[in-house]
Amino acid sequence: MRCISCQSLSFRIICKKCQKSFLTPSFYKREIEKDFFVYSFYKFDDVKEFINSKYEFYGDRVFSILAKLSFEKFAQNFDYGDVVYAIPIDDHTRHEFSHTAILARYLKSKYITCEFNVLKAQNIVKYAGKDLVFRQNNKRGFVYKGQKKIQVILIDDVVTTGSTMLEAKETLENNNCEVLFGLSISNANI
Question: Which entry of 26, 104, 119, 167 is 20 to 30 Å from 89 by CA?
Fold first, then answer.
């Protein structure tokens, strides 16, 4: 097989050299609403080709690498003192896998447990390349069927305008959950 980044022969979909060269995570903080922050690990433009692999048959392997390099490292260093729940935004399986579920899976730790298939979008609309007005006029219509009165970390792959994250946060808060912050692979506005 060849590395999807440099085309070198590799046993991995992204070779170790490219992982070290291009995929060393940073830590970015963005306030998308007063006192609500989303933390990300990469600038979107730096990982766009990897993020877009969610539409390809091999995307699960790419997201596993991204999650191992960033989300897993975050989980190892996260010490909250109490257990919080990582909830992926709309982890419905499309294209044979759920990219947000893969990200959440790598967050499991002593202080983080994951809840899968509990936050679902009723409106399956693609936001890629769409502006804020389109996103506001075409809400996801989230439904939450998970535990109540828990503390939550929301998980998504990309934060662009923040509208999806805010709509998911509102849905959880309407179900008596406290959303601590959001966590994403990349941020399009850095």
Answer: 26
**What is the model's pTM?**
0.89
In total, how many domains does the chain have?
A: 1
Helix (H, G, I), strand (E, B) or coil at 3: coil
pLDDT score of 138: 78
CB 12 within 8 A of CB 3: yes
Closest CA to 25 of 75, 79, 67, 78: 67
Q: In the predicted model, is pLDDT for residue 137 greater than 80?
A: no
Supply 49's token pair: 């080709």
d(CA 45, CA 141): 28
- Residue 2 inside a domain? The answer is no
First to last CA, the chain: 33
Dig out the tokens for 25 from the structure.
């995570």
Q: Is there a domain that residue 12 lies in?
A: no
